[in-house]
Amino acid sequence: IKILINALSRRFNTKRGTYFTDPGYGLDLEDLLGSALLPGSPERIALEMVEQAKEDERVANASAPSVSRVFVGSTVAVKVKLNVVPRIGEPFALSTIVDNVSVTILKAEK
What 3-state DSSP class applies to 67? Predict the structure, then answer.
């Protein structure tokens, strides 16, 4: 599970378009969070994270049952709980904070 968590973290923290062989790999955090105060924006970020998780061939399914806007100091961030069902192994949940520069995995739990 640790290897998959690390792979998802790399995917979430890579700017989309970095790899010309896989232009859909990664997230555009600056674009996504640029409108973090707009209605529906946290849900859009969570949806992008779910779609990126599903792009990994080791992931059978993913969902984001919990998403909210939070403030980290004076910065707007988005907290996303991501449920991941791997093709092999136990399902797990990732608690994440998404800000304009990174996706931080706060906790991984079964």
Answer: strand
